[in-house]
Amino acid sequence: MKLMVLPCDGIGPEIMAATLDVVEAANARFDLGITFHEEDAGFVSLKKHGITLREEVLDRARTQFDGVILGTQSHMDYPPVAEGGRNVSAGFRIGLDLYANVRPARSRDFLDNKANGMDLVIMREATEGFYPDRNMFKGVGEMMPDPNMALSVRKITRHGSMRICREAFKLAMQRKKKVAAIHKANSFLMTDGLFLDCFRNVAKDYPQVETEELIVDAFAALLVRKPETYDVVVATNFYGDILSDLASELSGSLGLAGSINANAETGLCCAQAQHGSAPDIAGKNVANPTSLILSAAMMLTWLGEQRTNPQLIAAGQAIAEAVDAVIDDPAKRTSDLGGTINTDTFGRFVADTVAREAVAA
Questions:
Q1: Residue 279 lies in a domain
Q2: Do 211 and 150 belong together in one domain?
Q3: Which one, of 184, 237, 190, 182, lies nearest residue 211 by Cα?
Q4: What is the pLDDT of residue 314?
Q5: CATH number of the domain that 309 lies in?
Q6: Burial letters for 301-313: b for 16+ Cβ neighbours within 10 Å, e otherwise?
Q7: Domain assignment of residue 159, given as a range
Q8: Chain center to CA of 111
Q9: pLDDT beyond 80 at 93
Q10: Residue 254 near residue 334, CB atoms below 8 Å
Q11: Domain total for the chain?
Q12: CB atoms inside a 10 Å sphere around CB 75
């Protein structure tokens, strides 16, 4: 199995190295036959090739690899698109049509959190919505008719809404059989109205699943008040992005939030940390690599489920369990969790736990 690896910007190279240590341990334990191929993206690619993400990299990811592990990017610091500053994350989501951004949020009893009992997954549509850099065939969905006016176009399609809702219901069938659709149809009558229409149509195929429709601002409050209530949450791009960060922070830390971008029809999947590139701590070996490690674990599990490969599923689960076992020990936590452990040391702790479990078994 071939994985494309793109360290990218800021803390990306550091957390990527720690993540690869862990995946290598799982590779050895479960005999997965994984090989890694590193590609340039972000500022390294801009310096070498004049653009942050080359089209040929996407072509190879689409045709030659089983999965992608994508590091953090400093999008806000890139030059304009015309000068090579392409949004790397959006490039992969659109270029590989990775419409399902899957973002779990789970509180842990042994870590401080503001959401006891939270265990949910936000299914975020990732290829359209209020994201002007990815919602048009040509150009972007933002414009300035004059210097004192800026406009932005939101695109919601039946195709995009139906497929993310299907994935949400399929996931709910594996969990607690509950799905909440997040919207603002009282204001966005047509766009959120279309999304809700798709949600209701998909729901007809899953009579076993309990459904709820919640206005986005009300849901944000309910997520704080009674986080244990929710199971699978499905939302359009903009709402899902904001709410998943809120859920992750409430459940413990954005640094503990895994994330994948996937397409069930093509079988393509990209692991990506939910947080940003943290340039202020880049190169200091203090970043928490948990988010990218858990994202890689999610990718292995997802690929295993798609391919009916129990070894891949077991590898993903073993990594997730090893992460919990390590951070359960206060002496093995990174500074954001109140500890003193460095990035590379944390990665070795998790990798050793994965390998040690194999010996114990």
A1: yes
A2: yes
A3: 182
A4: 97
A5: 3.40.718.10
A6: bbbbebeebebbb
A7: 114-118+144-251
A8: 22
A9: yes
A10: no
A11: 2
A12: 18
Phi, psi (degrees; rounded to nearest 5) at 155? -115, 120
Q: Is 111 exposed, middle or buried (0-12, 13-18, 19+ CB in 10 A)?
A: middle
pLDDT above 90 as % of the chain: 94
Question: Which amino acid makes up residue 42?
Answer: G
Which DSSP state fits 2?
Answer: E
- Does any domain span residue 312? yes
Mean pLDDT taken over the chain = 95
Tokens 């460095």 belong to 342
**Cα(177)–Cα(79) distance, integer angstroms:** 45
Stretch 286-298: mean pLDDT: 97
d(CA 3, CA 9): 19
* Predicted confidence (pLDDT) at residue 360 exceeds the cutoff of 80: no
User: Among 208, 233, 251, which residue terminates a domain?
Assistant: 251
DSSP-derived pairing of the beta strands 142-146 and 149-152: antiparallel
Give CA–CA dist 150/178, Å, rounded: 39
Q: Is the alpha carbon torsion for 103, 109, 110, 114 positive or negative?
A: positive
What are 145's two structure tokens?
């008719």
Amino acid, res. 162: M
DSSP string, 140-159: -SEEEEETTEEEE--B--HH
Encode burial over 123-160: b for 16+ CB neighbours within 10 A, e otherwise.
bbbbbbbbbbbbbeeeeebeeeeeeeeeeeebbbbeeb
- pLDDT for the residue numbered 358: 55
Q: pLDDT confidence of 357, banded at 50, 70, 90?
A: low
Banded pLDDT at 133 (limits 50, 70, 90): confident
